[in-house]
Design a protein that fits this description.
By secondary structure, the chain is of the alpha/beta class. The chain has helices at about 20-35, 50-65, 80-90, 120-130, 150-160, 175-190, 205-215, 220-230, 235-255, 270-275, and strands at about 10-15, 40-45, 70-75, 95-100, 135-140, 165-170, 195-200, 260-265. α4 runs parallel beside α5 (about 150-160) and α9 (about 235-255) crosses α10 (about 270-275). The radius of gyration is 18 Å and the shape is globular. The chain binds flavin-adenine dinucleotide. Flavin-adenine dinucleotide binds near residues 45, 101, 118 and 138.
Length: about 280
């Protein structure tokens, strides 16, 4: 197991566990991945604040273990007072990185919030806390699913970078070209912060298809068709996923990606398998 170059931005994302067993599992996953010396672990935040306390507990546990934790914070349906309180609590626990998002409202929930888009959250964090937080924002190489068109989506993306973001983590993708095009467009637009590719290991194709349809990530036809052939054959899905995702990560790193952010789904095995295959 290698320690990557310290200059590289490697991070691992968890979701806050809902059960006691989930907490115990995550402690093991955290230990397994901490050995890779990541830049940080990030912890998701349920839409509309639904996991607020569990996100907080998970972040504090990680932070106390000695690795940096970056809480996700989504602003949809939140008030300024809510967000201020969350930021202050994190600050008191020595948290200095944050993933700032708009988030998505659960269906049927109406927004009574004071923020409409992530750029307003980034502005608010900067206004309230100055340069205390290193702010990461989300990027969409394959275009955000609700965007009217790619040009407007990019302009909106640039607005939140200009509001004070320090780094970008992208939505996951399997077309490396989409990432390179997006990165080059950032460069041409004067965006010079790191654009870290988000990587989703493949472990379960029904779940992957469902997520990808929701978040607008394209699963290339050849991948869909191959995964469909495996049916319930978990070992073949895992082997194919490891191969495809390793090649994707290697191509990204070989062509200048500043690091990788793994959506671990609270499992260490698939991420470690890819990591061990990579040539640094
Ligand atoms: P925004 O940047 O606000 O963009 C949302 C949409 O609005 C886009 O279509 C954009 O083009 C448009 N837009 C943006 N600004 C403006 C503007 N000023 N005027 C008009 N239109 C505008 N979701 C969660 O609920 N919890 C999480 O923890 C979480 N973590 C994530 C981590 C990463 C790395 C990524 C990539 C996504 C994550 N998501 C999470 C999903 C995310 O919340 C959704 O993709 C959400 O729909 C958009 O959030 P955003 O911050 O990108 O929004």
């Amino acid at each position: 197991m290698t320690n990557k170059n310290k200059a590289d931005l490697f991070s691992f994302e968890f979701y806050p566990p809902k059960t006691e067993q989930g907490v115990v599992n995550l402690q093991k996953v955290h230990r397994d991945l901490a050995r890779l010396n990541p830049d940080f672990f990030s912890v998701t935040f349920g839409a509309g604040g639904s996991t607020r306390d569990k996100t907080y507990d998970t972040v504090v546990n990680i932070q106390q273990s000695g690795v940096s934790a970056a809480p996700h914070l989504s602003c949809v349906a939140s008030t300024k007072e809510n967000i201020r309180e969350i930021l202050n609590n994190y600050r008191e626990h020595g948290v200095s990185k944050i993933v700032a998002l708009r988030g998505d409202l659960p269906s049927g929930m109406m927004s009574a919030g004071e923020f409409r888009f992530a750029n307003e959250l980034v502005e608010f964090i900067r206004a309230e806390t100055g340069n205390h937080f290193q702010i990461h924002v989300a990027g969409y190489p394959e275009v955000h699913p609700q965007a009217d068109n790619a040009v407007e989506d990019f302009n909106n993306f640039k607005r939140k970078v200009d509001a004070g973001a320090d780094a970008v983590i992208t939505q996951y993708f399997y077309n490396a070209e989409a990432y390179f095009y997006f990165r080059d467009k950032c460069e041409k637009s004067g965006i010079d912060i790191p654009i870290v590719p988000g990587i989703m290991p493949i472990t379960n194709y029904a779940q992957l298809f469902r997520f990808s349809d929701m978040c607008g990530a394209d699963i290339p036809r050849w991948m869909r068709k191959t995964l469909e052939c495996f049916g319930d054959d978990k070992a073949s899905i895992m082997a194919f996923g490891e191969d495809v995702v390793t090649k994707l990560c290697q191509e990204l790193l070989d062509n200048g990606a500043p690091g990788l952010h793994f959506y671990t789904m609270n499992q260490s095995g698939p991420t470690l398998a890819v990591w061990d295959n990579l040539q640094f």
